[in-house]
UniProtKB/TrEMBL annotation:
This is SDR family NAD(P)-dependent oxidoreductase. PANTHER family: DEHYDROGENASE/REDUCTASE SDR FAMILY MEMBER 7B, DEHYDROGENASE_REDUCTASE SDR FAMILY MEMBER 7B. The keyword Transmembrane does not apply. It comes from the Bacteria. The keyword Chaperone does not apply. Keywords: Oxidoreductase. Belongs to the short-chain dehydrogenases/reductases (SDR) family. Residues 11-191 form the Ketoreductase domain. SMART domains: PKS_KR (SM00822).
Amino acid sequence: MPRRPPKIAGRPVVITGAASGIGRSLALRLSGLGSPVALADMDEARLSTVATSLCGPVLSRVLDVRDAAAQQRFANEVREWLPAPLVAVFNNAGVAVTSAVLHTVPEDDEWLFDINFWGVVHGTRAFLPILVHQNDGVIVNTSSVFGLLGMPHQSAYCASKFAIRGFTDALRQELRGTGVRAVTIHPGGITTNIARNARMRTDPEGLGRTKEQMAAQFEAATMTSPDRAAAIIHRGVERGKARILVGPDAYLFDALARITPTHYHAVVSRLRARRRESV
Ligand SMILES: NC(=O)c1ccc[n+]([C@@H]2O[C@H](COP(=O)([O-])OP(=O)(O)OC[C@H]3O[C@@H](n4cnc5c(N)ncnc54)[C@H](O)[C@@H]3O)[C@@H](O)[C@H]2O)c1
C-alpha cells in the first residue's frame, strides 16, 4: 500500500534562497509551525535578518548554490545538526535574466543557468543520500510557469525552469517504490524581489524602460504574495502532490500549455495588455 505523504510542519527542513521572497516566507511559516530550519542564501545581511527573527532551532549558512562542494559541506553540517530526521529540502534559490535571444550576453545566461539549474542539481545530489538513507522525505525543486511554456525575452530562464522540471520528473520515476518523493513547484507571478535582482542590459521591447520600471510593472501584475505562495507549497507537499501550481495565473498557464501548445502566446499577450491597462 502506498505510504501517506509525510506532514512536514514541525519536522526539520532545508531551504535555499531563504533570505527573500518565497524562501523567506517558507522559512517563517515552517519555523512558526515548529520545524527546525536549515537556511542558505548568498545574501548574508538578509539571511541573518530572517534567521534572527525565528524563535525555533535554525542553522543558517551563507552559501552560493552554484558551488557543489559548498552544498555538500552544507549537507554534511545539516546531517550533524539534525535534531530529527530531515523531512524536506526546498531547492528554491533562483534568479532571472531579461534579454532577447538576438542580444544575449552569454555570461548572463550562464550565471542564470548555473544558479537556477545547477544549483538545484547540486542541492538535490547533496541532500538526496540523507533522504534515501532514511527512506523518507521529499525533494522540492522550484521551477516556474515558465517551465510549462516559453515566454519572449526569458529564453534562459525558461530553459532553466524546463530543465528543472525534466530533472525532477526523472528523479521522481527513479524514486518510485521508495519512501522518498520529488516534487516540482510551478509558481505564477509572486510579489518578490526576483525582478529587482534580475540582470537586464536594455529594455528588450525597445520602450526604454529601466530595470526598476520593469520590476515595478512585474510586481503590479503579480497575483500572489510570497506568504500565500509558501502556504500553497506547504499544503501541496503535505497532500502528496507531485507538481504544485502556485497562484491563479499558474492554473491559467498550465491550461494554455495543454489546450494551445503552439499558440498560447497570443492569448497571454492579450491578457497581459489588458492587465497592464487596468493597473
Ligand atoms: N517571483 C516569481 O514570480 C516567481 C515565479 C516563478 C518561479 N519563481 C522562482 O521562485 C524561486 C524564489 O524566487 P523569489 O521570487 O522568491 O525571488 P527573490 O529574489 O525574492 O529570492 C531569491 C533568493 O535566492 C537567493 N539567491 C540568488 N542567487 C543565489 C545563489 N547563487 N546562491 C544562494 N542563494 C541565491 C537570493 O539572494 C534571494 O534571497 C526562484 O527559483 C524563482 O525562479 C519565482
